[in-house]
Amino acid sequence: MKNSLCFIWFFFLFFLCLINFFFSIYFIMNNMVIILEWEVISFNSLSIVMSILLDWMSLLFMMFVLLISSVVIYYSKSYMSSELNLTRFIILVLLFVFSMLLLIISPNIISILLGWDGLGLVSYCLVIYYQNLKSYNAGMLTALSNRIGDVFILMVISWMMNYGSWNYIFYLDLMNNDFEMKMISSMIIMAAMTKSAQIPFSSWLPAAMAAPTPVSALVHSSTLVTAGVYLLIRFNNLLIDMFFFKFLLLLSGLTMFMAGISANYEFDLKKIIALSTLSQLGLMMSILSMGMPILAFFHLLTHAMFKALLFMCAGVVIHLMNDMQDIRYMGGVSLFIPLTSLCMNISNMALCGIPFLAGFYSKDMILEMVSFSNLNLLVFFLYYISTGLTMFYTFRLVMYLMVNDYNLLSIYNLYDEDYIMLKSMFILLFMSVISGSMLSWMIFYYPYMIYLPFHLKMMVIYVSFLGSVLGFLLSNMNIYSMNKFIMTYNLSSFFCLMWFIPNLSTYGVSYNFLNFGYKLLKNIDLGWSEIYSGVGMMNIMKKYSMIFNIFQMNNFKIYLFSFILWIMISLLLLM
């Protein structure tokens, strides 16, 4: 039953993906947009409307989400085969995908909130899927970081009550200079920064690696983390002249740089890939901040393919290594699992932007547009150094995994015959090779001609080559022994711990609140309020009830004594 469930959903989602693909081509060719509206409720001239926006962008993105989710569900059939509650897992993944689809097709801020919140809640359920302390901490950090974005979306809904409708798409061109729209735009940027894990909200992304690997493949490619980028792509007309957008350019550039450095210090296989996702998200957000939404969308789609493939390959390797994720224990896996290694190397090459793979078309164009733009030197260096760092950590990963000696056990138990995983990986491998060129022909109506000086044109190759050489050299040495010569230990821990962002956003923020809560509990709930409310009242009532109990015993002496006492009191009063 479980196996057939995976097959059924795989074929259903794959079929929907093909339909979306043909529709998106039709919409691109005819330059069509369809808006469907269903009025749910009308309230004081404000109507809550369920809207669906179908244009080439939403259809194409839906096609990629459906393709990756169908492949991930098929992959889960083998990866999660020992899972007792596989049906529950599949339902959670489907809810996750449905929330993302709802967000993609919504031009209405109310229905966006449904998809946005759905992503946050279901991601919490998926991160804590393996129930242990690490998962609970990671899930709480993920959920609470995303709640900040949800609050900003709720504030956008309240601010949009200044207009006649929550369909933001009607106001993008008309209301550019309104103060209300500027406030809305700022909140949208903040919400997108939380969902797409830009500084200072970056710490939840590597922590979310506690989820099962198929979920990581889905989250880091086309769902959760791309929701913020997609929202900004949709709102781009409003944001283009804002100062906050220039600020976002700096923050996203620093995110890209910080993630690239941290990945070089990391030894957890899944965390390295997660930090590479963070770096690519910084790239998407920064090119979006420069006013090139189509280019950001192009990179979003190409990145989705090879990143999902990279996580799937990592899942196979982790499985075969007896659930070991430390890359120092791996090595030489290309000799034993050649097909998985092939997929992993091609996805890594696509990530680096090796010519004619998926990543090359989008990354090269982005970097050339950066060189072409009138920007300051800081942004220019952040882009190119981050590109070099991508090559750096990728080569380091390949050296540790594929080239170095096998380090785990004396008994080799590696095999490459899990055909279900391989089939699902080969679908994405095919897309990782062709999706870049296919999308560049589909999305851009005319070919871009970017004319640059020779050395500026070759700058991408220079930094990539330098990064690959450094990655090769440092992977043959212990990076911590290098630190004695290069930098102090404190500085290396600063780089290793993502510039202390996890400490600031979790321990730094939560510790004082939790400590304050403990003191309130101890001194108020278990202290003063106990004395004056619960236990105190009970003791007083108990004492008085004991006195009244004595009077209520039908004893003649007590009645006589009380009668004489009352007479004496009354005589005294009369005197």
Notes on the structure:
The protein is mainly alpha-helical and 575 residues long. It has three domains: 1-164 and 212-220, no CATH class; 316-496, no CATH class; 505-574, no CATH class. It has helices at residues 2-30, 56-79, 86-104, 109-127, 133-159, 179-195, 204-207, 213-219, 224-234, 236-239, 243-265, 269-289, 293-320, 338-352, 358-372, 377-403, 419-443, 454-457, 459-475, 479-486, 489-496, 501-552, 556-574, and strands spanning 34-43, 46-54. The protein has a two-stranded antiparallel ribbon. Helix 15 (358-372) runs parallel beside helix 17. The longest helix has 52 residues, at 501-552.
What are the salient characteristics of this protein?
single chain; mainly alpha; 23 helices; 3 domains; two-stranded antiparallel sheet; 575 residues; 2 strands
Quick recap:
This protein is mainly alpha-helical and 575 residues long.
Give the helix/strand layout.
Elements: H1 2-30, E1 34-43, E2 46-54, H2 56-79, H3 86-104, H4 109-127, H5 133-159, H6 179-195, H7 204-207, H8 213-219, H9 224-234, H10 236-239, H11 243-265, H12 269-289, H13 293-320, H14 338-352, H15 358-372, H16 377-403, H17 419-443, H18 454-457, H19 459-475, H20 479-486, H21 489-496, H22 501-552, H23 556-574
Antiparallel strand pairs: 1-2
Helix pairs in contact: 1-2, 2-3, 2-8, 2-13, 2-17, 3-4, 4-5, 5-6, 6-9, 8-13, 9-12, 9-13, 11-12, 11-16, 12-13, 12-16, 13-14, 13-15, 13-17, 14-16, 14-17, 15-17, 16-19
What fraction strand?
under 5%
Q: What structural class results from the helix and strand content?
A: mainly alpha
First and last CA, distance: 98 Å
Number of strands: 2
Which whole number gives the mean pLDDT?
83
